[in-house]
Every structure is written in C-alpha cells, then in structure tokens.
C-alpha cells in the first residue's frame, strides 16, 4: 500500500481544516498507479486507451460503463472522465474492484479519503451522497472479506456535521484519514472472524442500563453496546418482511386481498402460510440444502417431512419426486431459513391473531407490529394530496387513536416483539415529514409515550429512511427506544450509519428494511441471484460486526431483510414480473427492480399464491442464521 507520509503531509487531522499536502507528486503518482489521483493524465497515453477509443469500445457516457461487462473499457472511460474527482475515483475504484484488482481498488478509495473527504455526489432522489464515507466503508468491507490482503485501516473517520438534511451549504467536514497498515495474514484472519464470534447469541456483562420493564427489554452495557433481551435471554433480530401477495392483485388497482384470510383452494387452511409448495428440482446448492442432516430442526409431529420421510432430498431437488407439490407452507420455510421474527402493519388490512399465535407457538416466530403513522395518509384521515400534516390537531388525534387501537388490541398477544412507528416517513409521500421533520419527530414521540402508557412489555422503534434528519430524531424523539431505518447502500453494508446513530442518539439500531433484487440487466438469472446473495451476505456481516465495539459501533440489534417473497404488483402491472428498472441505485445492474426483492420467488407464476422457488440468498441466510 501507499505510504502517504513519504510523499506529503497530513495536516489538521480531526478538524474541519484537514488537508493532505503533496510534496512529491511524481513519486505519489507512481505509487498509486494509473487513473488514481494525482496520476490523472497518464491514462490518456496508455496504448490501450487509444486502441479502445479507435475501436469505439469507449463510445457513450461514462455513466453507461458503471455496470458494463467490458471492464477494461469501463476503467479507461472512468479514469479519464471529467466527473468531480471524488466521484471519478469512487467509480474507478468500483471497476477495479469488479476486475479483481483489489489493492488498486483500495488505493482509489483511499485516495478519496486522503484528498477529497468532503466529496459529494447525488442520489436519484436528489439527496447528498457523501463519497468519502462510502469509500471508508468500501475499504473496510474489502479488508474484512479478503484477509489474505494482510491490511488494516485504523481510525479512519469522516464526520459530516449538519449532514442529515439536503442542504450541503451548511456541511462541516471533520476528517481523520486514519492509516492503512500491513498486518500478518493470521491477524487479518482473526479480525475478519470477530463478527462471527460476537454474532452468536450470548449474554454480555456489566449492564449500564435497562430500557423497558417487561418481557422484552433493551440492555446497554458498560462498553456502550446494546442487546435485546426477551424473558431475560439475549435475542438477535433475524427477520423478514412477509407479504405473500397473489399474482394479479395490486393495491394500486384496489384488488389487494388479505393474505391472512385467503384460502383459494378452499381446504380450510390459509394459503401462503400453510399450502405453499416448492417447484420441482429448484436447483438446490450442493452441500447447502434446506434439509441437510445437521439442519433438519424438524418440529415434532408437525414438520416439513413426516417421520417416515427422509430429511435429506434425493437427487438435485429439495424434495424427492414422490414429494413434489407436497404442501410445505411459508411459515415452515421461514423456520428452516432461521427467521425468528417478521414485520407487519395493523392496517389497512385486518390482522388474523389466531394465525399469528400459531406462527409463534408452532414455529417460534415473533411479530413486530407497526402503525404507518400517517405515511400514505394512513391513520390520519387526511386525503392523499396534500397528505398527513403532523401539526394538524385532527390528524394527530386520528393517528393517536390508530396507535391506541393497535396497542390495546395486541399488547397481550404472546408473539409481539416490538412496536414500529412509520415507514420511511421522512421521504414524504402523502405526508409532510420531509418538509417538517421537527413536527413529525415530535409527534412520533407523542405516539411512543402513548404506547408506553398502555404497554410496558415491548420497546418502540421507528422505521425511518437512512439517516435523513437523524439529528432531528435524536432531539425530538427521546422516548422512541430503537432507531430503525430502511437502508439500501450497497453490498458493503451500511457504512457510517452505525457511528452516526451512536454519536447523535445513542440508541440501538435495527435495519427495518434492506435488500437487493434478484434480477439484473446483462446477467443470467443464476448470476443475478448470486449477486443478490452476495449483497445480503455483506449486509448481514455488517449487521453482525456492529453488534460489538471490538468490530464496529456495538449498537446493532439485527435487521429485517426485505423481503421473503417477490411481489409482482410493484411496477404497476400485477400479472407480469416486470424487469424494467424502477430507479438508479447501488444494485447489481445499477437499478432497483422492486418486483424481484424476495429471497424466495413465485417461480414461473403459474400457480400463485402457492408455488415457491428458493433463491441462493435463502440458503445464505439459512447458514448465517443457524444457531
């Protein structure tokens, strides 16, 4: 790696006046390599650059090359682009990473930290993207994933004061570039496994404080880390969003049914939870199947396979030919996956309490129950346009009544784990939380206080959007116990989110949504599903790492993968599995494909809502969530 102190000087580390002053530009250029600052012009003299340009392999915008399979052309295109230097370096590093040139990728990412820590890009949603923070997260991810590199990044941190709104003019950048240093491969291997050690469910010591008085509590320890305790025992949230929507149904067309009551085959059982089945020969990964001998976990008398049926599938399929189309049920599939909780909202559809009692008693899966708190105008009585106003007394009254109804109806149910308020309200959509975050978070705090006056057994979480207005949350929602957020940052995990929450709010963190499509333009279906599994693997590893201060911030309590099964209505044609990109983002082909987010698919869609196919990400979680 590059010894930056050999070629220049770091000044004012840990302050807004930070700067790296280059004293030997020629030497630093040689050390970092072609295309990496300050070596920005030599790429144009590369013979391959001239050849590819002549062959028109570099025709088009550099943005067209972000996910191009022509990695040589993509590198030369981005290395020679005129994007702001921090953005140019990030995508140059990304392409080097895809090419397997990991040390060069790390050099590109670290160049951002050293020279352009305050670099800014813009998301599809016109929110600022802090490139320096993402670069640190990328380096940390690569070093944990590849201990064979024998490198460690120590103490690197970029803090953006006032960085939780969309106004970049008030940002103050505080930079500590840290240091990339060589360590033995043996030490790197130990460090890469820290997340696994602390991901195990184990009681920690020296409790500093307990939040809650009932069966579900939050414990903070002397080292500032957090943990969920259920009946006094440690609990890691290993959850999914579950919505087994029948193909053809859509809320946009007013045809969405209530999956908790649907019985299309009229056999007296709820379809998705009990009657779903696996398609024939789904291509189970070798040695990592749903029902290996060590992973059977079959409940007595009510398992996936009867006592006379083998736990080990014959041939390539999950179930032998004689067991084809045998009802399995999603509840059983979730149990075998390792799911211990799901997220639901109590409106607009009625909740079937008997069904959830069976989910808990038979399958051991708990439920986080939410109220949208005026998002999509639900619960407030407001029209869609202009939507919920969080300072409107009538809207407040209606929403508090909705919350009261939820708590009074479900607080004594044995399956309840947490209460959840909202669903990324800070982004707007039929509510004004994006325009009046102070009003929203003040009202959310009122709702939390109401819940606690009715129920002392279950903590209260919010479901926010990334870290938008995190500072307002910290200031105006002190009685919300858990900072939950829907976050989609990429395959490296969640970056600076953990430390941001620790600094601003000192609350436990739960990812209320994270995920990746299993479709990508230009990839085969198998490749796309592999990319989805890798994305989820990186996300879960980051969640584990941040459960302890020896690996991360210590405030992670788990997460909710989005989602268990594909829903075909989200791109507005509910009978078609649409592949059109919804919006740009950090996904395998650069686009969000909202109808492909399931770790389980509805196969060819010909027998919905029954047929299922397990994707590679399902098996990834089955292995990761095995206790």
SSE class: alpha/beta
Q: What is the C-alpha radius of gyration, as a whole number of Å?
A: 25 Å
Which term fits the overall shape?
globular
Strand order of the largest sheet: 13-15-16-17-18-19-20-21
What top-tier CATH class of the largest domain fits best? Alpha Beta
- According to CATH, the fold-level topology of the largest domain is TIM Barrel
How many beta-strand segments?
25
Q: Sheet with the most strands?
A: 8 strands, parallel, barrel
Q: Which bin fits the share of residues in helices? A: 25-40%
Give the count of structural domains: 3
CATH superfamily of the largest domain: Glycosidases
Average pLDDT figure: 91
Strand content: 15-25%
Architecture (CATH level 2) name of the largest domain: Alpha-Beta Barrel
Count of discrete alpha- or pi-helical segments spanning 4 or more residues? 18
First-residue to last-residue Cα separation: 38 Å
What's a concise summary of this model?
The protein has 627 residues and is α/β, with parallel strands linked by helices. A hairpin with a 5-residue loop joins strand 3 and strand 4 (128-130).
Description:
The chain is an alpha/beta fold and 627 residues long. It is built from 18 helices and 25 strands. An 8-stranded parallel barrel has the order 13-15-16-17-18-19-20-21, surrounded by 4 helices. A hairpin with a 4-residue loop joins strand 10 and strand 11 (226-230). Helix 5 runs antiparallel to helix 6 (102-115), helix 6 (102-115) packs antiparallel against helix 7 (131-145) and helix 13 runs parallel beside helix 14. The longest helix is centred in the last third of the chain and has 21 residues, at 525-545. It is globular and about 75 Å long. The two termini are 38 Å apart. Mean pLDDT is 91; it is low at 283-323.
């Amino acid at each position: 790696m590059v010894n930056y102190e050999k070629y220049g000087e770091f000044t004012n580390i840990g302050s807004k006046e930070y700067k790296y002053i280059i004293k030997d530009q020629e030497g630093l250029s040689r050390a970092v390599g072609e295309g990496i600052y300050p070596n920005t012009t030599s790429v144009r003299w590369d013979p391959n650059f001239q050849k590819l340009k002549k062959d028109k392999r570099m025709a088009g915008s550099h943005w067209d090359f972000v996910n191009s399979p022509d990695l040589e052309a993509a590198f030369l295109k981005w290395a020679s682009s005129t994007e702001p230097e921090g953005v140019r370096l990030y995508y140059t590093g990304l392409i080097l990473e895809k090419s397997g040139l990991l040390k060069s990728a790390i050099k590109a990412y670290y160049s951002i930290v050293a020279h352009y820590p305050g670099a800014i890009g813009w998301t599809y949603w016109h929110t600022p993207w802090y490139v320096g923070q993402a670069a640190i997260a990328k380096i940390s991810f690569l070093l944990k994933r590849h201990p064979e590199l024998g490198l460690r990044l120590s103490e690197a941190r970029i803090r953006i004061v006032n960085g939780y709104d969309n106004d970049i003019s008030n940002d103050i950048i505080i930079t500590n570039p840290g240091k990339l240093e060589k360590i033995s491969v043996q030490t790197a291997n130990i460090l890469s496994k820290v997340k696994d050690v602390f991901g195990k469910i184990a009681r920690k010591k020296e409790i500093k404080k307990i939040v809650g008085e009932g069966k579900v509590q939050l414990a903070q320890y002397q080292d500032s880390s957090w943990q969920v305790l259920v009946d006094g025992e440690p609990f890691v949230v290993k959850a999914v969003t579950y919505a087994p929507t029948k193909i053809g149904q859509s809320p946009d067309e007013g045809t969405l049914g209530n999956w908790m009551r649907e019985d299309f085959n009229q056999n007296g059982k709820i379809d998705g939870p009990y009657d779903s089945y696996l398609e024939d020969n789904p291509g189970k990964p070798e040695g990592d199947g749903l029902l290996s001998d060590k992973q059977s976990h079959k409940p007595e008398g009510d398992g996936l396979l009867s006592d006379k049926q083998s736990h080990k599938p014959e041939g390539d399929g999950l179930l032998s030919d004689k067991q084809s189309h045998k009802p399995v049920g999603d509840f059983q599939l979730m149990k075998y996956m390792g799911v211990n909780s799901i997220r639901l909202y109590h409106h607009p559809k009625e909740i079937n309490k008997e069904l959830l009692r069976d989910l808990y008693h038979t399958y051991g899966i708990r439920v986080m129950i939410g109220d949208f708190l005026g998002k999509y105008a639900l619960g407030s009585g407001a029209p869609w346009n202009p939507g919920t106003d969080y300072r409107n007394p009538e809207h407040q009254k209606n929403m508090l009544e909705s919350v009261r109804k939820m708590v009074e109806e479900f607080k004594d149910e044995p399956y309840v784990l947490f209460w959840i308020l909202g669903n990324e309200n800070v982004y707007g959509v039929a509510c004004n939380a994006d325009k009046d975050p102070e009003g929203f978070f003040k009202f959310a705090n009122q709702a939390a206080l109401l819940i606690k006056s009715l129920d002392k057994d279950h903590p209260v979480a919010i479901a926010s959007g990334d870290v938008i207005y995190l500072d307002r949350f910290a200031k105006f929602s002190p009685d919300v116990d858990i900072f939950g957020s829907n976050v989609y940052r990429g395959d490296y995990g969640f970056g600076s989110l953990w430390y941001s929450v620790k600094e601003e709010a000192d609350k436990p963190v739960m990812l209320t949504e994270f995920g990746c499509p299993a479709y990508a333009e230009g990839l085969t279906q198998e490749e796309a599903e592999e990319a989805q599994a890798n994305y989820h693997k990186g996300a879960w590893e980051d969640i584990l790492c941040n459960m302890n201060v020896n690996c991360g911030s210590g405030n992670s309590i788990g997460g909710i993968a989005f989602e268990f099964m594909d829903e075909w209505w989200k791109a507005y044609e509910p009978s078609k599995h649409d592949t059109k990109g919804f919006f740009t983002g950090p996904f395998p082909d650069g686009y969000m494909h909202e109808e492909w987010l399931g770790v389980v698919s509805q196969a060819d869609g010909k027998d919905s809502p029954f047929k299922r196919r397990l994707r590679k990400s399902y098996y990834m979680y089955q292995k990761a969530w095995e206790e």
